[in-house]
């Protein structure tokens, strides 16, 4: 009976989730050659080809797809055993602050993973707007934050660059109406840019909904009474992205990661940041494959 090496499985999973050896090496803080050697060792152990390197990037073979699920379970179980039995220092509280429009689909999986690997750590999730999230971070009231911004600030790193899209009701016609009716939360950071962009394009608009409740915005848009903005891949299932060309292109936004380790939670902060990196890398790979 041969035994699988958790280290090689961890490298394989990083490559599978990120879609490439280079990005995986960055997540793991290893050299590309070290990751490649571990992948080769794993393939030799199983006597199977797990990765297809023939095209651009790296894709999983059928055997690799099957192994991915097992590898995830084994790594999570390994981390849970280790943390429960040995590392008693990984206790305490961690505040994670995230803009509400990017909570799904990554954050629930990250919280679940953190709960398994660090069951004695209490993670408090704060969901708000980027400006509020950054304010909490600046006051030291949040350990790790995500933001949606056009640029990345000092000490931050960009996890993903995502198109900002117009969204409306499925099959709706509000996007063609003039004046164009808009629905935004008063605190939404996308609101000023959208209005300025429409002005520059010479498109008449009016604010159909002015509210501080996101449910009101979504209800109005889903009823085809107005349009709004959302990051690609993060709109509600009952809304639809408007085809390019109908309204001005809103460009892209960066999903940025910041971590504050000055409170003595350095190990926990780095673990949370690592899980977030892997989560958004996996989401990006899934979106690319879907496209």
Jot down its keywords.
291 residues, alpha/beta, Arc Repressor Mutant, subunit A
Just give the CATH class of the domain at 6-85: Mainly Alpha
Structural class: alpha/beta
Summed up, the helix count is: 9
Assembly classification: single chain
What radius of gyration results from the CA coordinates?
A: 22 Å
How would you describe this protein?
Helix 5 (106-117) links the parallel strand 3 (92-99) and strand 4. Helix 1 (6-18) crosses helix 4 (62-85) and helix 1 packs across helix 9. This protein is α/β, with parallel strands linked by helices and 291 residues long. It has a domain at 6-85: Winged helix-like DNA-binding domain superfamily/Winged helix DNA-binding domain (Arc Repressor Mutant, subunit A, Orthogonal Bundle). It has helices spanning 6-18, 21-28, 32-46, 62-85, 106-117, 130-138, 191-200, 214-222, 266-290, and strands at residues 51-52, 59-60, 92-99, 121-128, 144-149, 157-168, 180-185, 205-211, 228-231, 240-241, 252-259. The two termini are 41 Å apart. The protein is 43% helix and 22% strand. The strands form three sheets. Strands 3, 4, 5, 6, 9, 10 and 11 form a seven-stranded mixed β-sheet that branches. The relative contact order is 0.14. It contains nine helices and eleven strands.
